[in-house]
Amino acid sequence: MTKQTDAELKMANLLVEALNLEDIEAHEIDPDEQLFGDGLGLDSIDALEISLAIAQDYGIQMKAEDEATRQAFATLKSLTAFVESNK
Amino acid sequence: MVKTFPLVRRGQNEVIAYLLKPIANFGLAAGKVDVNTFLSHVRAVAAALGEGKHAINMCDNRYLFLVSFCAVVLRRHINLLPATKNTFTQHQLNEAYADTYIIHDGVDIATPIPSIDLRKLTLNNAHDSSLGIPQIPNKHLACITFTSGSTGQSKPILKYWRTLHCSTAINYRYMIPKTDNTIFQLATMPAQHMWGLETSILMPLFENVCMSDVKPLFPQDIFDSLRSLPAPRLLVSTPIHLRAISVGSADDLSLHAVLCATSPLAPDLAQEIELKFAAPLLEVYGCSEVGSMAVRETARERNWLRFDDIHFEKDGEDTVVSAKHLPESTLLQDNIDIIDEQHFTLRGRTTDLVKIAGKRGSLFEINQVLLQFKGLVDGIVIYPNTNNAITRLCAIVALKPGYDKLTLRRFLREHLDSAFVPRPIHVVDTLPRESNGKLLKTRVEDLLKSLKK
Question: Contact, B240 vs B359, CB < 8 A?
Fold first, then answer.
């Protein structure tokens, strides 16, 4: 597993909290692991939950219409990078 | 004489759809689509369908779903409307039904099922209005929906043409606050779900309602889509989406009404939404077998108003629902208390039933799926008591050497609707069974508490 950056750890904490991922600790989420599908196994309801938490914590509104958003939801790393660049 | 009802009960120049995105291969720009143009698309797609009988309709774009749904009906084929699109579901339906084919606009297809990708059809808008509006026999089986989202082996529900147009007339009367104008509707649920089918597909076919092609998820997408539609606007949604948009700002948006169904809506959320959109919010109660059957203004009312064409018969705790337009009566999965002639309250569900994201699942069936996992030593799926906005199922399992959480999750994802894939999955050495083999609820709950990180 790639080591998480501080920003990624913060985002991982947001995911664990927003989605009640009780079987996993924030520091265990691999930045390169797929969030949806096989990896963490998230679905569209989770995407909605994540978008709400991001709006609340970072003040960023996500839009599914943007290709950037779609790419952002790939991994912890891409989600963190998306938020950092939109701050 | 065979009794019939039109495929579309709208004027040929009326607007049936408002596209927020163009569909180039159908010759469509964003904006209004009239009934004539729509019918030309239905005829063209119907002609492109092969020989077959059952069409698994997996279209995601709502306009393409509307067109293909009608094309299938026009050919006197039957739409199959599963809740999930995975290849396992496709295989199951292919085995259960004769002469199956798939209509879609971009999903992975389980070979060797024949399929039509609507993105690859090229149509033109040349329409011949002299062809008129086709008539469909009332007895035609227009579609089959499926009750439980938990496993593929759920109960099929047969929807005849008569049921669809009769129930839509009732729904329109009870759900849409009176207006002479065409209502422009945005829906956030898939068309394959009964709530989505009734409101976003059937209403535009039979009543003065215009559908839109999209299915927005994030709050900003929902607001933007609503802003793009002409007034008067109607939002049809679920408590999950409404909770998400309740925090966003939409000062400039006023709606004709908001409809909500699939799981209980909190009264304070209903009040917030009414304020936000300066519109009445009607919560609708229904089930896949019957469709919608009651309505209330949740911001102000606790009692449900039963549609007067729907009949309830109490048999002890049970309630049996029947209606003239339904082929058979249905035992309700909820316990209800009759208040008066036309009002009732809900008192909760039978214990096996879980409902997540508008999908009904049976805990028993979900556990049966878990037990089929080769790497399982012992395990259980439960519906935990939580204060979370959305409760997810949770699994506690003991696994054979060589198997891990990832392989189990992959197996469950293949066999269950994603809403029912347990999360978290806790892996333990043994489950706390009694000497007689029973697993007591209290001991499972204690174990679960100790497992939370």
Answer: no
